[in-house]
Amino acid sequence: MPASASLPQSENQAKEEILIDGTYYDVNDFKKRHPGGSIINFYTKGLDATDAFNSFHSRSVKATKFLKGLPSRPAEGAAKVEEMATSELLADFRKLTQELRDEGLFNPSPIHIAYRLAEIVIMHALGVWLVQQGYYIFGILILGIVQGRCGWLEHEAGHYSLTGKIEVDKHLQNILYCVGCGMSSSWWRNQHNKHHAMPQKLEHDVDLNTLPLVAFNKEIGKKGHKGWLKLQAYLFSPFICLVVALGWQFFLHPRHAFRTKKYIELFYFGLRYALWYLAFSNFSAGQIILLYVAYTWIGAAYIFTNFAMSHTHLPVLKAEDNVDWVRYAGDYTVNIESTFWVNWWMSYLNHQIEHHLYPSMPQFRHPQIAPRVKALFEKHGIPYVVYGYFEGLKVTYANLYTVGH
Fold first, then answer.
1. Could you tell me if 290 and 373 are in contact, meaning their C-beta atoms sit under 8 angstroms apart?
2. How far out from the chain centre does Cα 393 lie?
3. Is 207 in contact with 196 (CB distance < 8 Å)?
4. What is the dihedral sign for C-alpha 169, 255, 196, 345?
5. Region label for 134, one of left (φ > 0), alpha (ψ between -120 and 50) or beta (otherwise)
6. Could you tell me the pTM of the whole model?
7. Quick count: other Cβ atoms within 10 Å of Cβ 337?
8. Domains assigned to the chain
9. How, if at all, do strands 23-26 and 17-20 pair?
10. Coil, helix or strand at residue 74
C-alpha cells in the first residue's frame, strides 16, 4: 500500500489548515460551516487538497472567492511542496484536465438533458398505464427501472454536471431524488462527496459503513454478525437492497430533512406518495402498498447492484495512509465495459474511473475521454481495470460470498 503522501507540517498547521495550490488556508472558523460538511477535515492533516478542491468546486465562483478570503500563508518548505504538487503524474493529469476544458468536454448538452428528462417522464407514464391495463409485472418492472434511472440522473445533478448551473442542478436533484426515489438530496451531497474524496479508505469513505446488513471487505466484516454475513451473497439483491431503500425512505432521510430543516425536501417526499396514491387510487390500500414495495425493490436492486460493481470488491486503504487524487481513481475504482446497452443501463457510470477523476464532467462524455485517461494511467504504471458487465457481477458476488465466509 502506498506510503502516506502527507506534506511537511509545522506548528502553524495545528490551526487546522488546508493546502491548495501552494498556500495554506486557515479553516478553523469555517470548517463547521462548510456546505460540503465534514469532508473538509480529511485535508487538514497536511494533505494537498488542490485536486480535490478543483474537482468539487470547478463550477463555483463563490467557493473560489470565499477561499481567497480566508486567512492564509505561503506553504513552508516550498521546494518539497512544489515537488509533490507538480509530480510528473499530477502535472500530466492537470495538463490533460486543462486540455479537456479547452475542448469543451466539461460543457453540458441541452439535447442530452432534454432526452434524459423526457425518458423519465415517458417511462413513468408507460409504467402506470401498463399497471392500469392489468400488465402488473411489466408495469412495475418499468416503474422500478425508472426509479433507478431517477437515481442515476440525480447523481449527475448532485455533482452539478447535469446543467452545469449549481442552483438549477440542486432543484433538479431535489425533484429527481426526493420525488423520484423518496430520498434526501442534501443527505446525498453531504455523504457522497466524502466517498469521492477518498474512495475505499477506512474511516473516510462512508460507502464502507454498511453494517449490520452487509460487508464488502473483510476489515468491515470482522465487526459483523458472522451467521448473517454468510448469507449476504444470496440476500444482497433480493432483500438487503430493499431493506436499505425502505430504511432510507421512511427513516434516515426524512429524519435528516427534519433535522436540517430542508422543508422543500419534505414537501417533495409528500408529493411522491400523493402521486403514487393518485396513480393507483382505484386499487385497494393493500394493493397500493404491495405495488409500492415491489416498485421500490426493483429500483433498489437495479441501482445498488450496479453501483456495487465499481468499488466494493476492491481492497481498502488504511485510515493512516494516503494516495493522490489520480491513484484513488486508479487503484480503488474499476470500469465496466463501454457498450451501447451498458452505457444506457448504467447511465455512463460504468466509467467510474473517469467519473472519479472528473466528477463535474457530464457523464455522457466519459466514453470520449476514456482512451486518453487510459494512456495517462499506462504512462505512469497505474492500473486501468475494465470488466465485462457479467464479469463485474460475478466478481462482486464472489467477493460478497468470500467476505461472508
1. no
2. 19
3. no
4. negative
5. left
6. 0.88
7. 15
8. 11-86 (3.10.120.10)
9. antiparallel
10. strand
Helix, strand, or coil here: 336? strand
- All residues at 6 or more sequence positions from 134 whose CB lies less than 8 Å from its CB, including other chains: none
Q: Across-strand partners of 190? A: none
The whole-number pLDDT of residue 364 equals 97
Q: Count Cα neighbours of 6 within 13 Å in the Cβ-side half-sphere.
A: 14
Q: What is the pLDDT of residue 134?
A: 96
**Residue 211 in grid coordinates:** 453494517
Cα separation, 32 vs 19, in Å, equals 18
Q: Residue 60: helix, strand or coil by DSSP?
A: coil
Please, are residues 131 and 143 in contact by the beta-carbon 8 Å criterion? yes
8 Å CB contact between 84 and 16? no
Residue that the C-alpha cell 507538480 belongs to: 86
- Chunked into runs of 10 residues, the chain (405 residues) has average pLDDT values of 42 66 77 69 75 77 74 65 64 94 96 97 98 97 98 96 94 97 94 88 89 92 91 95 97 96 97 98 97 98 96 91 90 96 97 96 97 96 96 97 94
Residue 40 pLDDT: 74
Q: Tell the residue number behind the cell numbers 463550477, with chain if given.
A: 59
91 Cβ contact partners less than 8 Å away, ≥ 6 residues apart: none
Query: What is the DSSP secondary structure assignment for residue 86, as one 8-state letter?
Result: T
Residue 301 contacts residue 242 (beta carbons within 8 Å): yes
